[in-house]
Design brief:
There is one protein chain. The chain is of the alpha/beta class and 208 residues long. The protein has a single domain, classed as 3-Layer(aba) Sandwich (Rossmann fold), CATH 3.40.50. Helices cover 28% and strands 25% of the residues. It has four helices and 14 strands. The strands form four sheets. It has an eight-stranded mixed β-sheet. The radius of gyration is 17 Å and the shape is globular. It starts with 5 loop residues before the first strand and ends with a strand. Its EC number is 6.3.3.2.
Length: 208
């Protein structure tokens, strides 16, 4: 049981003071990286997107019969929808995350070209219907990434909750701009380490 000076997150107990320090560090890094995204020229964004799609396609290899979870781009995230189309044509089942209940794991719902879409809880387009899928591979958008392959996301904790809840761990691949490297996210016990991160400058970071 947590003391008054502690809090519990994902079943892990942490000092409130430590959490405040970590939250402040991550918020500052997010704001810095969001600003870099906003200032990124469209030509650079397009070039980095192509670079990441090529490297990701090479990394995935034969995807026939695999279920791959992507994301719908927001806040200047790399737009990999062309890759979603290509992998669907190659025989993969493509899915997108859907927030069904706030502050709870997401479900991955099948997406296909032309499928009915609706606006989700955060006003992000999601497949309107379909049974939840269990992904073999999850592609995660990066705000930041450190050398140990810990991801800085938008701060909601949805991916960490979701990945921790899956009975079989999928392959976890982060994708982001070349400038998204940071020294450390100051990882906590509930943070889920990625297997690999592919960046727009051509670099690849792998978990130790």
């Amino acid at each position: 049981m947590a003391r008054e000076d502690q809090t519990t997150i994902g079943g892990h107990v942490i000092d409130r003071a430590t959490k405040l320090q970590v939250d402040a560090h991550r918020k500052a890094e997010r704001e810095r990286l969001y600003a870099l995204r906003r200032g990124m020229p469209q030509s650079n964004r397009a070039a980095e997107t192509e670079q990441v799609i090529a490297a990701l396609t090479d990394r995935l290899g034969d995807v026939a019969g695999k279920t791959i979870a992507f994301y719908w781009p927001i806040r200047g995230e790399l737009d990999l929808r062309a890759c979603m189309h290509a992998l669907h044509r190659s025989g993969a089942t493509v899915s997108l995350p859907v927030v069904v209940t706030r502050a709870a794991p997401v479900e991955f719902r099948t997406w296909a070209p032309g499928c009915a879409m609706t606006r989700g809880i955060w006003n992000i387009p999601v497949p309107a219907e379909g049974a939840p899928q269990r992904p073999d591979i999850v592609i995660l958008p990066l705000v930041g990434i450190d050398a140990d392959c810990y991801r800085l996301g938008n701060g909601g904790g949805y991916y960490d909750m979701t990945l921790a809840s899956l009975p079989v761990a999928p392959l976890k691949i982060g994708v982001g701009q070349g400038f998204c490297r940071i020294d450390s996210i100051r990882p906590q016990p509930w943070d889920v380490r990625l297997d690999t991160a592919i960046l727009g400058d051509g670099s690849i970071i792998s978990a130790p």
